[in-house]
Specification:
elongated, about 170 residues
């Protein structure tokens, strides 16, 4: 309140507390998307500030799988992490490049026919994307490895200490 030495009592209100609340000191807190009018009243005067709460735009999106190998008829689940936390991807789009190989609905991938397909999640007018390659193989078909990856690639231990090395087979 200006000037600071005033003894006027100000009453703060929000016309839409589902969107924004206001404390007795005028601190506004965004609650959900939308608009709210914050009113400060003192004696016979008042002033209104329109507050708009907007969605935080995604800076990064990540699928929980970069690659899936499924047997015809199998199902798997894909989920998407949107960062930062609380960001909203208003224009999120899912693209399947070969719908004869897989179907995709509400996060569920179903292997329909032998082959390969890609599922792409994208947003921010296509500037952010994450892709999962899906291979549909025959039951008990041998998987030919292109490489083996270790995590970690180096390991330092004290005498008597154990350490775990994880291996990932890359088809």
């Amino acid at each position: 309140i200006s000037p600071e030495d005033t003894d006027v009592i100000v009453t703060w209100t929000s016309d839409n507390e589902k969107v924004a609340t206001v404390s007795s000191t005028g601190m506004v807190t965004a609650v959900s998307l939308g608009t709210a009018k914050i009113t400060a009243s003192a004696e016979e005067s008042s002033a209104i500030c329109e507050v708009t709460v907007v969605a935080l735009k995604p800076e990064e999106i990540n699928l929980n799988h970069n690659e899936l190998i499924l047997i015809k008829g199998d199902e798997a689940t894909l989920s998407l992490q949107i960062l930062p936390e609380g960001a909203v991807a208003d224009d999120l789009e899912w693209i399947v490049d070969d719908k004869s190989v897989i179907s995709f609905k509400d996060g569920k991938v179903t292997a329909l026919e032998y082959g390969e397909a890609k599922i792409t999640a994208r947003c921010n007018d296509g500037s952010l994307a994450s892709v999962c390659k899906v291979s549909v193989v025959e039951d008990n078909a041998p998987i030919i490895l292109s490489s083996i990856e270790f995590n970690p690639t180096t390991l330092s231990l004290y005498v008597g200490q154990d350490g775990k090395i994880n291996v990932k087979f890359v088809p």
